[in-house]
């Protein structure tokens, strides 16, 4: 029996308030979709089976280099984080797994951690290593890089850390390692691009050599920040080279906020799928840089277009297509639990909308160069209000029709605020 | 009696195919909106009363500096263009006026032109001058600028041209002049920024002096193209200075595609409203630069956020708020009539969605710093599928439930293709 | 007698090593400039008289939201910072003043602080307020804004803080207040743009009312960060409105890294000069966003083009032209003292290069639309290696021919590292 | 004997005016470089041996989609163009080859064309195909794409055209084919990214199959324009995949203006070198998009940083390193001959500056994480005024110390203006 952090009775009572309206909306939408040749229940079943991982660090309040404004009841450790993640999963039924960050989530007793996850109904998604910060007592500093550092001992330390992440993950049931590094430079001339990348590849090969057979390794590209002139893994071109150099278990991870202005991200997704190297996603939204805003809050059509590629690949059973889905956001001005619930919903929404695309018609328009109708076909799917499908999927899975309302009604935040001491200080925030 | 370019019987027959489904969808949406405290008919009435101007040049096929690929049945002159515009208005009932470009649309008999517009049920919106091209027989070249040219005679010629545009517009019933110039530079050092802007302001003051009392003048900013290092009216800051320097009849025109990457355009709109200087819009969409893509085709949420500001201003009856709305797009790969119909619909859609925003709740969330619910309030309005409202407004106004289907069924394009000789050549296209 | 932090004998010895080569280079350059009609000594005198302020926070090691990697011997307080600033001034003779940040630099005994500055030969430049962070014990949080906060008490607190900064500055001999706020939003709908700006203007008017007659107030625009959807003072257009609304003592401050991608910054500078509202600069360089990299390290020609506008205004004695010059950088991977010395030199370099522009010839080319020669005229000035002029100015002013070599030879960093305890921790860094 | 378009006596007379000053500057610079351990004559020899190809279309006046303002004496055909190119080569001695564009430069008698090139001292660089425009009488239109068109016959036509370019090139002594296409889409949904790229690869494989053994094929990526939503070869990631898929004779061509805003281009260059796939360059400069401005006119340090990578690769004899160098610019407001002469000089300048980098010191700083001195090492090379080296290399090779002055003194433009009829019309321009 999964331990529920929000009382089932409260969820039920909240759902009762909205059930009739939901049924009416679901029925009306079903009628409309039926006219379009779509079985609403089939879509609902796919949505119900879909899930996105929550990052353990996402349930804390984020910040910027200027300040971090702590929220109430912030989790003190991975066990607190798991409880918050369990709330998200209980109400949305769309976030069955948690992705850990080492050493932030390191504990002595991994068995207890795994057990706690199981009790809360949570699995463990990809492991995340951290060589973009120095930890107390750490021998070699990452100030000038980690896996690509000019110093061999520093690189070895970073490699070891990644291997440790694999070892922890093995005990928790994880099947993937995500590697994002901040390595790069702030000045032309600071780093030799070629040598740095050679060192990076060497280090990654050492990590790869230790990867279990049934694991995957995801490298993540990012245009800039924390390095402001050059970044070792700066774009998908470099990321692709990495995956090619490492081997069949290596894949590229796409964070939606890590690209140059104006970049057509859905096209990068298509290319990586085509060449069998799409590892997965860090979902979020952005307007300027790696803003780590809530998924779908700025440009929901872009999110839909990414999912349009994913559903296209799923539909044609593209070879090697099995991307991992994770949220990765910084919640600076909202309750992290609320933001993650809404964001998980937005990912499901984009998936549901993409399922509505009339792919046969689309292929016809594309073949006939009917650009206008190609566009209209996507937009018809996007502008369909699929909220009734999402809500019905949640309801039938035991979640909440309106997760945020339910969460607010539950008093969970006040309860944990009373239990968890306030974080003081207002230094820069890390997400 | 308005002359109809598409047979009424055909429109009726097309509508008959879709009427029952529309009624069902409209009814279901009405129920849902009613639960949200919104009267669907009230929204429909506002949408029905809303219109956006069509640019005369928009009904021709556009192009790029690399090539222009002509379409079939392209209009040969302003009279052909008016006919195409009439089709758009007939089917969408959302484009009651046409905006002319001089000298492209110059004719000897303005009375005949006005009469033709009236016969087709079309009014004349803002006049557009053209000092970004040289015309055959023109005395002074605009190669190095027009209103800001270092040469006084060239500036005088450009001023005269703008005055001529006013004079033509007066005879047609227009009430505004839109001034967009390509002046700028391709090299640091080519132009003295300050002197060029002084000259521009002097020229514009001469035009302004001739502006009738009940007219407005709109200046339009643009970051780059056709000048690639500096542009005289490069952004809304400079545009604001122009409107301030000229006087109370001078306003700023916002083309959605004329900004730097990542710019928050809706915020510029809000600022211009706040200071009484928003003149109006050139609607289109873009991903990279002044792409002149179909409105709402790339980032529909951005379009909605602009309309959110407009409806907010309308709701609170902001002082001096009376923006002009016009489409301005380059149709390179679609039938221009189809693109303009869809685009007019997209503008109406954004307007309808913005009307659905629960402004009282929004104000409360904003006052209480509930960022998440502020966001959700906008998104709830945006994700409502308002197509039934738009279609019902069209239907009841005598238009088509599905303008593109109706247009295709009408055979209009084939008919005009037979009448209008094919344009040959494949030079760069101008929009 | 100014207290020197680096022994004069060491400086002299270092200079001796380089004096002969400098003389030869200076002589050769003088010959070449003479052929171009330029008196090298006149340029040198202008450069020698030029100075740029150092920000007190600049002498600490910066960081990002991901990590801060402390350096050795970081200053513990404003007195330590002054000593580091004195080193910069001693060796470069280009940084005679320091700009303070309150409350970071707040001390009980302002008289002692002023005296310490005088002893070290340093004056006090513009004061900087801080309402983008919460301070321990602060009544109202700035999590949701400061001068534009929806809550009146929070705004009043922020106004009071700015007034306190003025009061402190008055005691130190400062003559300006720089106001940069992080206010904005992370979600569409979080904030009402218009109301927020109204509140901001009201708050600023309250600060302005307290401004001494011989002071100026500088508002600083920034596109994004720490707010990632909208920023209250997002660009120079809004900044201009602020300066206009406040009055004749209000001016716009331009930070080179605070603009949208591709923005022509030198043109903004020209516009602000033309309309009498250029307050000054925060110099730095950037490639992606507000990277706060060392001035001139990424795009030195852009820096030159800004100075080209400044020298142009200086030459024609533009009305009201009196900009403040300050460095504002985040030194994450270098010794801050070294970076600031180099950066001060780069600013002087751009100034010297701009002084070499043949302005009469340039005006002629511009009038005659000779774009190529206009460009060549600027480039001829830019590509002149003015290092001998800068070095000679330093030498003759008592500074170092090679400030970095001299600094490294001095052992200053090791000395202060021994005195100042290492900062521990690796949280996000703030600059 | 090479036929000279500018009288040798005039060149000599012009050089006489500047020889003494050049000698003095060269001597002084030699002294300074000698102190830095650099042999100026060795640098001069490398510069003298360096050349960049001129595009045949570059000697015509370019334009934008809005207008093209013809210049005087524009070349009417490839023979006129060769004459203009010969002038550039005569005066700069840095542009020994011309790159042709088919069908623009197609002639019946290729033997005569080759002979004419030889007479003028010009060789033939890479061939350029054109499938981004329709030609009169062409069977299938490229409106919806060429090599990636959904229609097999259209693709076959585009393949045939590329093969024809190879065949022409073989007769002229060319050894490479550059393929740039405008294929892409203007709407989400218009094109299936994956299928379009599959078709593109198939087409290119057909072209590759016909490539002579001693030829190379260069594919060129570009972010956008003429397609404004997606472009088939949108970035170096896709370009790399193309080169990998095609085989060992396939390489990536980098046009400096074809990237997303803020992109670190020099890093892309480094990656392509590292993986043996750098084919060459289209040099130009840009501020906003594919502005095609004169090389080095906007950001000369960026150009230097690219050459820093090239010289680094040259120095360490990187495997497979043999990039082709070509200018590719649109001259809208200058005399194309003058712009190309200056641009050729700028490319040589960047090369000379990069040769001055103290690579041993740089490697040491990089190994020791001395970011500041790494930066300073590059900047010391960049800020060296190498004009005396360039001018001396030109002089000694028989060119002009000041090519533009010499060209203006020659009256060449007036002469050809009298011979070549003025181009009329002001349509959009194509480059």
TrEMBL record, chains A, B, C, D:
Q: Record keywords: GTP-binding included?
A: no
Q: Which UniProt keywords apply?
A: Isomerase, Manganese, Metal-binding
This one is known as: L-rhamnose catabolism isomerase
> Superkingdom of the source?
Bacteria
Q: Which InterPro entries has this protein been placed in?
A: L-rhamnose_isomerase (IPR050337), L_rhamnose_iso (IPR013451), Xyl_isomerase-like_sf (IPR036237)
Query: Its Gene Ontology molecular function terms?
Result: isomerase activity; metal ion binding
């Amino acid at each position: 029996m999964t331990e529920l952090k929000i009382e089932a009775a409260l969820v039920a009572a909240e759902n009762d308030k909205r059930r009739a309206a939901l049924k009416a909306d679901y029925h009306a939408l079903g009628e409309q979709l039926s006219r379009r040749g779509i079985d609403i229940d089939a879509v609902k079943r796919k949505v119900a089976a879909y899930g996105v991982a929550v990052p353990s660090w996402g349930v804390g309040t984020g910040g910027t280099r200027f300040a971090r404004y702590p929220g109430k009841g912030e989790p003190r450790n991975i066990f607190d984080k798991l409880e918050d993640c369990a709330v998200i999963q209980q109400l949305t039924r769309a976030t069955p797994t948690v992705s850990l960050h080492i050493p932030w989530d390191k504990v002595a007793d991994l068995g207890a951690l795994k057990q706690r996850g199981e009790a809360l109904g949570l699995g463990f998604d990809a492991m995340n290593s951290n060589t973009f910060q120095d930890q107390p007592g750490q021998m070699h500093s990452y100030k000038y890089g980690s896996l690509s550092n000019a110093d061999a001992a520093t690189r070895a330390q970073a490699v070891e850390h990644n291997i440790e992440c694999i070892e922890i993950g093995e005990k928790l049931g994880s099947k993937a390692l995500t590697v994002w590094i901040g390595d790069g430079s702030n000045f032309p001339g600071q780093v030799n691009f070629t040598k740095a990348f050679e060192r990076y590849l060497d280090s990654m090969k050492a990590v790869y050599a230790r990867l279990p057979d049934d694991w995957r390794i995801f490298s993540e590209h990012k245009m800039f920040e924390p390095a402001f002139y050059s970044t070792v893994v700066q774009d998908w071109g470099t990321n692709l080279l990495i995956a090619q150099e490492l081997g069949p278990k290596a894949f590229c991870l796409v964070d939606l906020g890590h690209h140059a202005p104006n970049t057509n991200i859905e096209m990068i997704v298509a290319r990586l799928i085509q060449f069998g190297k799409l590892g997965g996603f860090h979902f979020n939204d952005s307007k300027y840089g790696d803003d780590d805003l809530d998924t779908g809050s700025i440009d929901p059509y872009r999110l839909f277009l990414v999912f349009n590629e994913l559903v296209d690949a799923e539909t044609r059973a593209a070879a090697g297509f099995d991307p991992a889905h994770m949220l990765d956001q910084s919640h600076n001005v909202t309750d992290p639990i609320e933001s993650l619930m809404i964001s998980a919903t937005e990912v499901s929404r984009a998936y549901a909308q993409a399922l509505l695309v009339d792919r046969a018609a689309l292929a016809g328009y594309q073949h006939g160069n009917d650009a206008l109708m190609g566009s209209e076909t996507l937009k018809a799917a996007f502008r369909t209000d699929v909220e009734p499908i999402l809500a019905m999927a949640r309801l039938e899975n035991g979640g909440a029709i309106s997760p945020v309302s339910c969460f607010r009604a539950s008093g969970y935040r006040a309860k944990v605020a009373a239990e968890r001491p306030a974080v003081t200080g207002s230094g820069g925030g890390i997400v």
